[in-house]
Amino acid sequence: MSLLKTDRTTAPKAPKTKTREWADSLIFAIVAATLIRWATFEAYTIPSPSMENSLLVGDYLFVSKLHYGPITPQTPLQVPLTHQTVWGTGLKSYSELIQLPTYRLPGFSEIKRNDVVVFHVPHESQYPADLRTNYIKRCVAVAGDTLEIKDAQVYLNGKPGETPPGLETTYFMQVDNPNDEVTAALRAQGVVDYDQPGGVPQAVTGPDGKVGYAISCTVAAADYFRKQSYVRNMTVIQPQVQLFPDVADFRNSGAMSATPRGWTLDNYGPLPIPKKGQTITLTPGNAAIYYKIVARYEHNEGITWQNGMIYQNGKMLSSYTVKQNYYMMMGDNRHNSEDSRFWGFVPEDHVVGKAVLIWLSVDPNADFWHKIRWNRLFNIIH
Prior knowledge:
Elements: H1 18-39, E1 41-45, E2 59-64, E3 77-86, E4 91-98, E5 116-120, E6 134-141, E7 146-150, E8 153-156, E9 159-160, E10 168-175, H2 180-188, E11 204-205, E12 211-218, H3 219-226, E13 231-236, E14 268-272, E15 279-281, H4 287-297, E16 303-306, E17 309-312, E18 315-316, E19 319-321, E20 326-330, H5 340-343, E21 346-347, E22 351-361, E23 379-380
Antiparallel strand pairs: 1-2, 2-22, 3-4, 5-6, 5-22, 6-20, 7-8, 7-14, 8-9, 10-12, 10-13, 11-12, 15-19, 16-17, 17-18, 20-21, 22-23
């Protein structure tokens, strides 16, 4: 006699249908892909020339989340307050949005000077950080550094910083006769204007009535053009704009520094980069540097800007202790990049990952047979 008893009250489990098997497999694949993308690598493309000539428009990149560690979602959660229907509306009652603490998992590297970094742009304050536009720039200074730019040369803590090999500057190249020879030379030197058909720079007349080309190119290309008989002059040009911290709150309010500095893109600083745990004495001379840190990035309540100083709940702050590390990010196309010189520091919790590899590069201006830039495929990003 068998000692096992059959439970006749439980019906045998019905086998999954083919549709259910496909659905389960699809759900598993989506979840797995989402986790891999969040925790390991994510693909990005370069849409603008702000990092040329190091990265080109049409480059497709892999960005590593493993280097600095993936970060938990920063979008606030909306939690139901009750499960009861609000009578007469057909709607459920909800609480206010709840912001969970942000946490970065361990990575195997810190953010270093000259890393090419993807981050959430800091100035789109209408969105949670992880729903903002992603930018890619080069980290030129880390927390604790003092940054200064003199005649376009970056200095860190008083010493010259490393110059990226693809660094570009914008020039007005004066010529006597714009013609096919000049156009061919521009193309051969890799000079591109993405706003023009085919990417070919067009001759323009400068404010002084002289004819030439406004171009962004490397130092090597500029040196080449200076030696050509058709070039009369190469003059550096840059936009004349108010920069951070004279503009204390880029695109979000009219907050301006009480002590304007008048810095330019090529002559900027010295500017200290805030470091976690550092206590700052706030004065009218430096309050604009730290305003967005106190008011937005570190989620303090009751912060206002009054008469060039930071107030909390109506009381002027005389000091502040920084809660996270900050970084300065700049494009390698130094006169054609909206970066930290415009809007200030990038908080550590806005950093997405490190750009590590170009896996594909498509020239938007080339014909079908030359669309792929074969020499850029699988290049390590430096």
